[in-house]
Amino acid sequence: MSDLVKTEVRGSILEIVLNRPDKRNAINGELYAAFDAAVNVAARMSDVRVVLVRGEGKAFSAGIDYTDFLRLSEEYGPDWQQRMRKITDDFQRVLTNLERLELPTIALLHGYCLGLAMELALACDMRIDAEGTMLGLPETLLGMIPVVGGKTRLVRLVGPGKAKELIFSGRQIDAHLAERWGIVNHVTPPEGLLAAGETLAEEISQAAPLAVGMAKRVIDGLADIDRGLMLEGWAQSQLFSTEDFMEGIQARMMRRKPEFKGR
Fold this sequence. Notes:
Layout: E1 5-10, E2 13-18, H1 29-43, E3 50-55, H2 69-76, H3 84-99, E4 105-109, E5 112-114, H4 116-122, E6 126-130, E7 134-136, H5 150-158, H6 160-169, E8 172-174, H7 175-181, E9 186-188, H8 193-205, H9 209-220, H10 225-239, H11 243-254
Parallel strand pairs: 2-3, 3-4, 4-6, 5-7, 6-9
Antiparallel strand pairs: 1-2, 7-8
Helix pairs in contact: 1-3, 3-10, 4-5, 5-6
């Protein structure tokens, strides 16, 4: 497994750690693949009862590494913008595997949790937030939309009105507002984040694992996740062919304000 993701078992808890602190754990292809491998390992562990997901360094994750868009042409060919359904399916599969893991998952958030990182956190069962953390889905500021389950899972948590406000504006919100909206379960001082996660994990570990796993499946089955993911992929496949998308990505990489033209 890549050094960009670390795993450690402590008693009944498996910890999965995003380990690219020099880049605020920005998610590139190698890190994303390593995270997927760690989730697949977790699915085969019989003695683990709960999975904690956290980030090393000053942030949980700043989101996707935008320079990684250059990799898409290498992996999917020069016409990669015409293959967005395949690309979207590949991205969605990783977080769908995480969500469908029968083990309960808890994301421990600090610093920043933006874009793809927030979509990853939303695919976990629960989220604990350190005070001072900023969360957001800024994709519309780049000419695209959250496409790896972000819209679908956010609507399930907070309803369409608040989800639209957050996604349409692309704004970042703090930990306490995220808690009031129901995006995170608890907010804790930064120094107590890991302890809060371990305490909740230990409490869950005392319950019957088969019952917990079945409860998770039933609760998740109440929402039509598959249809939401399909609609996300369809919408993104249209947006990636627009001039606004290319302008948004170029502006972000050049650290300037984008000039969107609606085409």
